[in-house]
Specification:
With 403 residues, the protein is an alpha/beta fold. It contains twelve helices and 17 strands.
């Protein structure tokens, strides 16, 4: 076999095509998006996680089988299908157009290989093992252990770990969370989990996509509970990877109870909660000396007028503290009007933050009476902050460093 020539590709703004919309594509696409690729996905169907990214406008989707014209203008193509004939067709077109082609089904028929990758801050380490994924993963894992502060990556067979993945930026997962993720046999992840971390898993790890799209397709919580218990009772080490913190509107309590009832040990790894971290990265402290001594985190997935809502919106309207609303974009207009009717000043500063801590972060600010209109063009996930802290000039004093 010829010697490989390693490169670091700068894909920002350059067309990359992924053929396939299944589990392999779900693992590869977040890293391509993180690299800034102009991504086109060609597949008749998408997994729920990919559907969520597509609905957020992160890539283009052609909902059909591959056609040669799909590679027009492409710099790189990933073939993520398990049909050898379909994969060979893509390879043939790529060869003719001199486009490097990665193939998930047959690395020896590919013109490019994806390395085993670990990322630590600005350092990216990529390892090629001469065609052996196990070798490259083994070497990668040793390097990752040297870069990390802990080398303890022992599996916990028959155990479920509820791991908070943080608010979106993959580097905001805890050290323990990342260590257990790297040791998992099964990873059960949803849409708000930092997807780029899935690209670093060993090839034999089972990734179960239970993406829970707001007001769309969802895996029933009972099914998720049963899945965690089933895999753990089969002797697997299962990591339930969630966005934010497992116990802040993450239904981690329900999953822990289901495991306890089945006699399955549970490890809880708290995550950086989006309720606090997303406003902080946007330059908004939820508390500030001389401004407010309290903050309240509430779910806005039900309208204030809903008989099922457990939030005392009237009390929040009378309070002086900061209100942080998660999952409230759909009902933001009613939330604002309810708070105002209960006593909040219509001029109270407010901010809506879309996809906080990620490269897709957008922040809009407006008085409470106008925040719903200002946020009309935002897409989920959105966190809304209401209170005088929004006017604390943290983000106006100096630019926050992006490291």
């Amino acid at each position: 076999m010829s010697t490989l020539y390693p490169l670091g590709l700068r894909l920002d703004g350059r067309r990359v095509v992924v053929v396939g919309g299944g589990a392999i594509a779900t693992r590869r696409i977040p890293a391509l998006l993180e690299a800034g690729a102009d991504l086109l996905v060609v597949a008749p169907d998408l997994t729920p996680a990919l559907q969520g990214l597509r609905d957020a406008g992160r890539f283009q989707w052609r909902a059909r089988p591959f056609e040669p014209s799909d590679l027009d203008g492409a710099w790189l193509v990933h073939v993520a299908v398990d049909d050898p004939a379909a994969a060979a067709e893509v390879s043939s077109v790529a060869e003719e157009l001199r486009v490097f082609c990665v193939r998930a089904d047959d690395r020896h028929a590919a013109t490019a290989w994806t390395p085993a990758v670990t990322r630590h801050g600005p350092v990216t380490v990529a390892v090629l093992g001469g065609g052996s994924p196990r070798l490259s993963m083994s070497v990668r894992d040793r390097i990752a252990a040297l870069l990390a502060s802990s080398a303890d990556t022992d599996r916990l067979p028959g155990t479920v770990a509820l791991v908070g993945g943080g608010p979106g930026d993959a580097e905001l997962i805890t050290v323990k969370g990342r260590r257990l993720l790297n040791a998992a046999d099964v990873v059960v992840a949803d849409r708000l989990a930092p997807g780029v971390l899935l690209d670093e898993l060993r090839p034999e790890v089972e990734v179960v996509d239970v993406a829970k799209l707001p007001y769309g397709a969802a895996a029933a919580q009972e099914h998720i509970n049963a899945l965690l218990v089933e895999r753990a009772l089969a002797g697997k080490f299962v990591v339930r990877l969630k966005g934010g913190d497992p116990f802040v509107f993450g239904r981690g309590g329900e999953e822990a109870l289901a495991c306890a009832e089945a006699g399955v040990p549970v490890v809880v790894v708290p995550g950086v909660s989006s309720a606090i971290s997303v406003p902080a990265v946007a330059g908004i402290p939820v508390t500030h000396r001389g401004v407010t001594h309290e903050f309240t985190v509430v779910s806005g997935h039900l309208a204030p007028s809903s008989s099922q809502s457990l939030v005392d919106w009237t009390a929040l309207g009378r309070s002086r503290g900061t209100v942080v609303v998660l999952m409230g974009l759909r009902h933001l207009a009613e939330i604002a009007s309810t708070l105002i009717a209960a006593g909040r000043n219509p001029a109270t500063p407010a901010a809506a933050i879309q996809e906080g801590t990620t490269s897709q972060q957008v922040v809009v600010r407006a008085p409470l009476a106008e925040i719903a209109a200002a946020a009309a063009d935002l897409r989920t996930p959105v966190i809304t902050v209401i209170g005088e802290v929004v006017s604390v000039p943290l983000s106006g004093t100096a630019p926050f460093a992006d490291i």
